[in-house]
Design brief:
By secondary structure, the chain is α/β, with parallel strands linked by helices. Helices cover 45% and strands 14% of the residues. It contains 18 helices and 14 strands. It has a 6-stranded parallel beta sheet with strand order 3-2-1-4-5-6, sandwiched between helices. A 6-stranded parallel beta sheet has the order 11-10-9-12-13-14.
Length: 436
């Protein structure tokens, strides 16, 4: 089976590599010629555990290909996946120009029955717009070529994207005909050997499922952050509260960890887009609007705690452990670290940072406003406080003796509740966490 995937970001490249790993012939397309040349040379432009090996192996055996020209491979494929970016506009809506551009190229060049599958996260109703664009282009050509559109949203976690694709907890596919359903069933058959569930549904429901899933997870995070902040005020321990409510099978334990807010390419963008879609239909999603407001406030909480602990930020040196929005990725989109760094710098502090993989990305985003350190202990040298921002494994059991020796003042603000409060206090540190 031959397919094409347009877009070689997290979604497109992971999807293409994993489909090829299952024996499917995949052509990945991107307008960025430099990126395509890097990929052809085996140089993976994103950090994602396990991805580089799969890409190189399938390129070597001839199942995975890269090109800048979608037109060149359209006659050879049965399915085209659109996995291009949908960045947020200023009003929070998803910018569909790249999605519609793919549809336009598709309509201008197909010569046989082909399915265009939207894999990007898009608002409800996008597939109808995609279909209209394709029909418009076919009409310009005077062609009556049968095609279909479908929706197949991704549910990949950065840092575990390969595992999630190869072992999905569900596959959601929106189609309009039995013919399209049959093609998509054949494409995903290799993933059903282990009985992974495919949920076929109408296209609007598939589009909504992706937004609803991310909004629910974001809601749990903001809910726990709100509870954690109240716990501090009333003298409760959010860790105890989390365990107590998580024991209820109706609630469960996942995504109940308080911290300094969520970031990344999905939750912030999708929550905003869902709220905007509701407003477009004359409805206000009160819960979702509050989820976003709580998260924006939570991103500043570490800086607030540092300012309070240090009696002001002017002239202080603060070390940050972690820059990416979560471990196992170099992605800093909407990362809490960016908000914290901005607050610290505006307050007059000197900021020293260390992250295992996101240093180059940080430098690309903010330049040399901060001091980039060679390791976690270099970052805390002569620091007045340490802020723990991203829970990378190497930060989990630090040498308290080394920290105390290197720091000017043994003070820690734990933005991810990574450490045991009693242990840190016993080591002679000032310590502040989230919700306890």
């Amino acid at each position: 089976m031959n397919i094409a995937i347009v877009g070689t970001g997290y979604v497109g490249l992971v999807s293409g590599a994993c489909f090829s790993e299952m024996g499917i012939n995949v052509t990945c397309v991107d307008i960025d010629s430099k990126k395509i040349e890097r990929l052809k040379a085996g140089d993976i432009p994103i950090y994602e555990p396990g991805l580089d090996e799969i890409v190189r192996r399938n390129c070597r055996v001839g199942r995975l290909h890269f090109t800048t020209d979608l037109k060149s491979c359209l006659n050879d494929v049965e399915v085209v996946f659109s996995a291009v970016g949908t960045p947020p506009d200023e009003d929070g809506s998803a910018d569909l120009k790249y999605v519609l551009s793919v549809a336009r190229t598709f309509g201008q060049n197909i010569e046989k029955y082909t399915i265009l599958v939207t894999k990007s996260t898009v608002p409800v109703g996008t597939s109808a717009k995609v279909k209209a664009v394709i029909e418009e282009e076919l009409a310009k050509r005077g062609k009556n070529i049968e095609f279909e559109v479908a929706s197949n949203p991704e549910f990949l976690k950065e840092g575990a994207a390969v595992k999630d694709f190869m072992s999905p907890d569900r596959i959601v596919i929106g189609v309009e005909s039995d013919r399209a359903k049959s093609v998509m069933e054949r494409l995903y058959r290799p993933f059903q050997i282990n009985k992974y569930k495919i949920y076929f549904m109408d296209i609007p429901s598939a589009e909504m499922t992706k937004y609803a899933a991310n909004a629910m997870l974001a809601t749990r995070i903001s809910f726990m952050n709100d509870i954690a902040n109240l716990c501090e005020l009333v003298g409760a321990n959010v860790d105890m509260v989390r365990k107590g409510i998580g024991a209820d099978a109706r609630i469960g334990t996942k995504f109940l960890y308080p911290g300094c807010g969520y970031g990344g390419s999905c939750f912030p963008k999708d929550v905003k887009a869902l709220a905007k879609t509701a407003r477009d239909y004359g409805y206000t999603m009160g819960v979702i609007e509050a989820v976003e407001a709580v998260n924006e406030r939570q991103k500043a909480i570490v800086a607030d705690k540092l300012e309070k602990m240090l009696g002001g930020l002017e002239g202080r040196t603060v070390a940050l452990w972690g820059l990416s929005f979560k471990p196992e990725t170099d992605d800093m989109r909407e990362a809490p670290s960016l908000v914290i760094i901005d607050r610290l710098l505006r307050g007059g502090a000197q900021v020293k940072v260390y992250d295992p993989v996101a240093m180059d990305e940080c430098r690309r985003r903010i330049g040399d406003k901060v001091t980039y350190c060679k390791d976690m202990y270099d970052a805390v040298t002569d620091a007045d406080a340490l802020a723990m921002i991203t829970e990378w494994n190497e930060f989990r059991i630090p040498s308290w003796t080394a920290l105390k020796r290197l720091m000017r003042r043994p003070a820690i603000v734990d933005g991810r509740n990574l450490y045991d409060k009693a242990e840190v206090l016993a080591e002679g540190f000032e310590y502040s966490a989230i919700g306890k």
